[in-house]
Amino acid sequence: PAGGVSLRLCSTRETLEGINKPVVDRIIRVDHAGEYGANRIYAGQMAVLGRSSAGPIIQQMWNQEKDHLKKFSELMVAYRVRPTVLLPFWNVAGFVLGAGSALLGKKGAMACTVAVEESISDHYNSQIRTLVEEDPEKYRELLQIIKQFRDDEREHHDIGLEHDAEAAPAYSVLKTAIQLGCKAAIFLSERI
């Protein structure tokens, strides 16, 4: 299991009836889409920088994202959540963002990582607040998973900063543009 977190599968109707299905559906759908997009970003970065000195650190972060995607794919089945219809778009957009930022060099790729991971960890914090307000005990396992993944995203954010993200060309403009894209992707993926 990703991050050492396990999940009891909700395979019975009785278990599913005890949750706020619209809230859980939205959370799982958008998190699956986000982890899918993150995988595509790292794939794009590896396509450009995989054989450079940045390759191993990008690969390490990508491996964690693969675990996150696997877990949210399992949760989609367990909670009977449909994926966003935008996955084909996120497939292309994520790869283009990853490859495009990597074409700016290691610093550009790390700036992208900082921008995306900051947006995602903030988004995970918002979900944590929502689930705690709903019922922290009822959503204990889902909360544990989201908290672990948020911590992983914060670690990726910090790795990006340690690897000179802020020295990327037009860092603040790049970061702002990527974060606006993330907010739009989150909004759309929750709903569509």
UniProtKB/TrEMBL annotation:
Which UniProt keyword terms apply here? Iron, Membrane, Metal-binding, Monooxygenase, Oxidoreductase, Ubiquinone biosynthesis
Give a yes or no for keyword Iron in this entry.
yes
**Which SUPFAM superfamilies did the record assign?**
Ferritin-like
State the superkingdom.
Answer: Eukaryota
Q: Which GO terms describe its biological process?
A: determination of adult lifespan; regulation of gene expression; regulation of reactive oxygen species metabolic process; ubiquinone biosynthetic process
Tell me one GO molecular function of this protein.
3-demethoxyubiquinol 3-hydroxylase activity
A GO CC annotation recorded here is: mitochondrial inner membrane
- Pathway assignment: Cofactor biosynthesis; ubiquinone biosynthesis
Under HAMAP family, the record lists:
COQ7 (MF_01658)
What this protein is called in its record is COQ7 protein
Q: Which organism is it from?
A: Thalassarche chlororhynchos (Atlantic yellow-nosed albatross)
